[in-house]
UniProtKB/TrEMBL annotation:
Taxonomic source organism: Pycnococcus provasolii
Pfam families: DUF3050
Name of protein: DUF3050 domain-containing protein
Amino acid sequence: MAVPTTTTTTSAAVTCHIHSQCCQCDDDAAAANGGDSSLVLAPSPEAEEGLDDGSFRVVTADVDDEESEYTCAMMRECAKISDSLRHQRHALAKHPCYSEITSLDDLKHFMECHVYAVWDFMSLLKALQINLTCVSVPWLPPQHEMSAEICRFVNEIVLDEESDRDEQGKHMSHLVMYIKAMEQVGADTRSIHAFLNAVRDGTSVSDALVKANAPTSASKFVMSNMRVLQSNSLPEIAATFTFGREDIIPVMFETIENILVDGMDESRFSKFMFYLRRHIELDGDEHGPLSLKLVASVCEDDDSRWGSASRASVNALTARITLWDDILIELKRTNHRRRQRRRRVPS
């Protein structure tokens, strides 16, 4: 049973993963795409015009194997979601918030807000682990091969996020790694510690945010993700995790990295740079492409699930854009006050 040749525009991460699932393209295209004879990749018209959003035209060829046909069909559903997010991805890749970070004080403020996003990432991940692996007693094995593959993928991400190695080779979670990076630059960690202590004591997330006097921007972002978790919708959780985090984080972090390297002394925030580069490496090369298969396995060929996943993806990127918008407003306000004070200093 053959799948007609199809052209779709999608992100580089989706391209990479669809590419690994399809078959039959010419040898030159295969060589250009890592030696896998699956599809032809070409820059999208937007990318050719300088809109650096990582998009490509994806051209899949005939597939004879029924299982491969099904896999390709599911990957194309992922491609449709990614395509619908193109403008939001571009907005995040080029967000003016990044270029407003011109001093250590700016970086401190950014990190004091962003650390909450680092924390709630783990809640999304743990929800996936609870739903897609066995974390109860008595233990039961996955029921089919795809479940075992997804189980391994989720557990690998948990391993990296909960017990990765820092720049000195010490095991720690990425949240602890981030808090140590905050301490290095002199950012205020009292709020995030107060929040964690409150949650540990059984306080609800919403009340803990208030108790910790968390930044309003961070509170809004965290609560948007808590609503996804409270929905108990696995397609929404998987899509929020994949398209709202794994797929977009490398794009955002690379931009932040480049701006910081060009503008400030990296030795003063080396731990933060290590954190950024570690996520670029993991999410761009490993986690991102595999997370697309996670979405496909959760949604299967159910149109309602794909609809839920698509809406959740849009909402996730909207929440991230709002977070950056709010941080930008505060950075501009702070920088304006700083310039005003300088003008008042007598020469």
